[in-house]
């Protein structure tokens, strides 16, 4: 039987890279994007992939996903990747309630709702959850209080879920990328000059002296999915060129 994987935010960047890797390996994959146009692009690129819309700004978004798993995959799920995310960069002075709430919904509340809805499916396969966190949830950066604290919260959720779900044979780990080449900063509405400036300063701060590529993150996720890591749970794995140890 084909293995099954759900990737939230699989319509671009890191999530799309993970989808491409496991699609090529013959898995059944469901990816989400916020709109029909973003899911259509990934569906066209990867024939046979399943797509659904999922937007953490809205309530009850986990329901169509769990209905899909029950209906199409007979209630079996091997891997859930909580990857959907976006970033807010703002000084504390002037921060909005909307910014705080959107970060906490996207990186903590909604992954919690979806993961809770998938427990029985994952128990059926002794499957696993992988949370895509961030080096910004480990190391403190000015103007990243909303995003950084949300990702730090996701790191703690990873450990608590790992404890709670271990008796069911479900493993839970997090991968924490450092600055990686995707469209995440463009989607945050930053100007090209600002993005260029951030890229330069990030590169200078990374011990391995380069920004990450999507494949750096994908191949680490593949390591965790690989059967060689079946005794690994509750781990937060930085994949960041060393930036989180500086
Ligand atoms: N790139 C980095 O430097 C970096 C570093 C550390 C951690 N991360 C984390 O890696 C994950 C993937 O980011 P990425 O860099 O690949 O960014 P990306 O290319 O912008 O992709 C983000 C994905 O998440 C979806 N998404 C965004 N906001 C969402 C929301 N409110 N509800 C549901 N889906 C939403 C997007 O859907 P649409 O296509 O519809 O917009 C897209 O599929 C995120 O959790 C991010 O925090 C990224």
Notable features of this structure?
single chain; alpha/beta; Rossmann fold; 46% helix; binds NADP nicotinamide-adenine-dinucleotide phosphate
Uncertain ranges? none
Find the CATH topology: Rossmann fold
Strand order of the largest sheet: 3-2-1-4-5-6-7
Fraction of residues in H or I helices: 40-55%
* Proportion in β-strands: 5-15%
First and last CA, distance: 45 Å
Report on the architecture of this protein.
Belongs to the short-chain dehydrogenases/reductases (SDR) family. This is Ketoreductase. InterPro entries: NAD(P)-bd_dom_sf, Sc_DH/Rdtase_CS, SDR_fam. The chain has eight helices and seven strands. With 246 residues, it is α/β, with parallel strands linked by helices. It has a single domain, classed as NAD(P)-binding Rossmann-like Domain (Rossmann fold, 3-Layer(aba) Sandwich), CATH 3.40.50.720. α5 links the parallel β5 and β6 (171-177). α1 (13-24) crosses α8, α3 packs parallel to α4 and α4 packs parallel to α5 (145-165). The structure holds NADP nicotinamide-adenine-dinucleotide phosphate. NADP nicotinamide-adenine-dinucleotide phosphate binds at residues 9-15, 33-35, 38, 54-57, 83-86, 106, 132, 134, 177, 179-180, 182-184, 187.
Tell me the layout of helices and strands.
Elements: E1 4-7, H1 13-24, E2 28-33, H2 36-45, E3 50-53, H3 62-73, E4 79-82, H4 97-125, E5 128-132, H5 145-165, E6 171-177, H6 184-187, H7 192-205, H8 214-225, E7 236-239
Parallel strand pairs: 1-2, 1-4, 2-3, 4-5, 5-6, 6-7
Helix pairs in contact: 1-8, 3-4, 4-5
The chain binds NADP nicotinamide-adenine-dinucleotide phosphate.
